[in-house]
Write a structure and sequence with these properties.
261 residues; alpha+beta
Length: 261
C-alpha cells in the first residue's frame, strides 16, 4: 500500500513540476484536457516535451483525445509522445500503438526518504547552485554533453527564466574548476524532484552524478521534503538504486520510431 501511495504522489508531483517549469520555457504551453495534461514546447523538439501525459486516473479518458492531440503537435513539425503508467492504461496504450506510437521507453519512477540514502557519491567535488547566464551556459554545455545531444537542443531548459521558477534549483558540479556534472531539482508539495542529471561520458564512473543528485536531495530534505523522487534513465537506474532510491512505479513513453531515431 505504501508504494502505491508513493507512486500516486510521484505522479502528482511530476505533473506539478512540469507545469511550473513549462510556463517558463521558451515556446512552452500547458493545457489540461480529457483528464490528462498536454505539454508542448517548440524550442525542445523531443517527444517527452511535446506529449500527452496520462499518469493520473482515469487515464482511459484520454483515449478519444489522443489522435487530435497528436495531429495538433505533428502539424507544428514536432515529435509527439504519450506518457502513461505501465499496465495502468491498456486502452490508451493500444490506441497509441494503433496511431503509430510504437517506440516504447520504459522509465522507472523512483523515490527515496532521507534515511534511505546509502551512497553520497564523490567527495572531492564542489557543487554550486547557478543562476547567472555565464554559469548557466557552462551548465548547459555539461548537460548536453552528458545527454549526448546537439548543442542548443536543451537551451530552453537551462536559462535564467527556468532558474528563477519558484522551487527550482540548477546545480553545477566542478572538480578543480572544471565542470563534471549537473542536475536540476524542483521543491514542492512535500517532495523534491530531481531532473537532468547529466555527466559527460569521459567523467562517468567517478561518483559525480551521484554526488550532485545527493546534494539536490539533501537540500530538499532540509527544506522539508518527505521524499526525493525522479524518473530514471536506463543509464542512471543502477546508480540511483545504489544510492537508496527504490522503484515504486513504471512509466512508459510512447512515440514514433522516427522520433526516437
Amino acid at each position: 500500500m505504501a508504494s502505491t501511495q508513493e507512486a500516486d504522489r510521484l505522479a502528482a508531483w511530476i505533473l506539478s513540476a512540469f507545469k511550473e517549469v513549462f510556463i517558463a520555457l521558451d515556446g512552452g504551453r500547458v493545457e489540461d484536457r480529457n483528464g490528462c495534461r498536454q505539454f508542448v514546447c517548440r524550442s525542445v523538439p523531443l517527444p517527452a516535451f511535446n506529449s500527452l501525459w496520462a499518469i493520473q486516473h482515469p487515464a482511459e479518458a484520454a483515449v478519444s483525445g489522443l489522435a487530435p492531440a497528436m495531429a495538433e503537435v505533428e502539424r507544428m513539425g514536432l515529435p509527439f509522445g504519450v506518457l502513461l503508467r505501465s499496465s495502468r492504461a491498456p486502452e490508451l496504450e493500444a490506441e497509441a500503438q494503433r496511431l503509430g506510437l510504437t517506440a516504447a521507453e520504459r522509465i522507472p519512477a523512483m523515490v527515496m526518504a532521507a534515511d534511505e540514502l546509502r551512497d553520497p557519491g564523490a567527495r572531492d567535488i564542489e557543487i554550486t547552485r547557478v543562476t547567472g547566464k555565464a554559469d548557466l551556459d557552462r551548465t548547459l554545455s555539461v548537460m548536453e554533453a552528458g545527454f549526448e545531444v546537439p548543442p542548443g537542443l536543451l537551451q530552453a531548459l537551462c536559462c535564467p527564466a527556468v532558474a528563477q521558477v519558484p522551487g527550482v534549483s540548477i546545480y553545477l558540479a566542478t572538480v578543480d574548476g572544471e565542470p563534471v556534472s549537473t542536475a536540476t531539482s524542483w521543491l514542492g508539495d512535500g517532495g523534491i524532484g530531481i531532473f537532468n542529471v547529466a555527466t559527460p561520458p569521459a567523467m562517468r564512473g567517478r561518483g559525480y552524478g551521484t554526488a550532485v543528485t545527493a546534494r539536490a536531495a539533501a537540500e530538499g530534505f532540509m527544506a522539508g521534503a518527505e521524499l526525493a523522487w525522479l524518473q530514471s534513465s536506463h543509464l542512471g537506474e543502477s546508480v540511483y538504486r545504489r544510492m537508496g532510491f527504490r522503484q515504486v512505479d513504471s512509466h512508459l513513453l510512447l512515440s514514433r520510431p522516427t522520433a526516437v531515431a
